[in-house]
Amino acid sequence: MKYLFAVLLFLFSRPLFAETYHFVSINYLIEQEIGRIVLPEIYKRLDIDITITPLPGKRAQFEAKTGLKHGEIMRIFSYGTETPSTVRVPTPYYYLETMAFIRKDSKIKIESVEDLKKYHIVKVRGVKHTNNITKGMKFVEDLDTTKQILRLVSAGLADVALTNRVDGLVHLDELGITNVVPIQKNLAVLELFHYIHHSQKHLVPIVNQKIIEMQHSGELAKLISQAEQQVIKNTQYFP
Questions:
Q1: CATH number for the 2-94+192-237 domain, one of 3.40.190.10, 3.30.365.10, 3.40.50.300, 3.40.50.1370?
Q2: CA pair distance 118, 139, nearest whole angstrom
């Protein structure tokens, strides 16, 4: 009898979610690298282990929507509409600013999204916020990394690079480029959400509640600040 009791005690004392969950992120973007640090800490407080595989944006979306992975770590609101096989965790845990970067000597004036239509724009392939803001525009070119798009603008081979403000500033500093600057005002501020494949939707309410708790306690803000500092120190490893 005592052995049966010991077995039952072992079974019921194990974490409720013993499985490891596997998510994807977009590679080489500052905000995604911050998410790769922050999200595992959120899950850790739920006694859940996760892995995160960085991939190009379109590949990441494919693996999340088909269930090859259990979801994506960080996407904007409209991703949920475009990817109905995933469930949005309702509370955002980070944000980004869509920013245009131009040469200092270009005399380009951008005060609204409409102004972008006149220029040759470069952006990172598969990133939703820059995809959305340039939808229907003719002179848009996709590249693989933020450093590539900033180099093109610096060399005068493109007019405008679109990316997250922090992402652009950090990479400009890393590259030592001084002739490219952000415009005075961002084009959009967008909240970032965690998305989970519907096959694992049982995770959504508990992850959402933990994010809310960590926001209220100030723990999330502290984690994000630490993650930002860590990522900024390591941008030399980005291509």
A1: 3.40.190.10
A2: 8
Q: So where are the chain's domains?
A: 2-94+192-237, 95-188
> pTM higher than 0.90, yes or no?
no
Q: Looking at the DSSP assignment, which residues form a beta bridge with residue 50?
A: 21
Residue labelled with tokens 């590679």: 27
- C-alpha to C-alpha distances, 15 to 49, 145, 188, 228, nearest whole angstrom: 11, 39, 41, 30
Q: What is the pLDDT of residues 50-84, one digit of tens each?
A: 999 999 999 999 999 999 999 999 999 999 999 99
pLDDT at 229 over 80: yes
Cite the beta strand spans of the chain per DSSP E.
Answer: 21-26, 50-55, 71-75, 86-88, 94-103, 121-124, 140-143, 160-164, 180-182, 188-197
pLDDT, position 18: 61
The mean pLDDT of 141-154, rounded to a whole number, is 97
Question: pLDDT, tens digit, for every residue of 108-131?
Answer: 999 999 999 999 999 999 999 999
- Residue 156 φ/ψ, nearest 5 degrees: 80, 15
Do residues 139 and 121 make contact, with C-beta atoms less than 8 angstroms apart?
A: yes
Q: Rounded distance, CA 30 to CA 132, Å? A: 19
Distance CA 176, CA 115 (A): 28
Please answer whether residues 76 and 190 qualify as being in contact, where contact means their C-beta atoms are separated by less than 8 angstroms: yes
CATH of domain 95-188: 3.40.190.10
Question: What is the DSSP code string of 37-63?
Answer: HHHHHHHHTTT--EEEEEE-HHHHHHH
Cα four-point dihedral sign 192, 194, 198, 202: negative
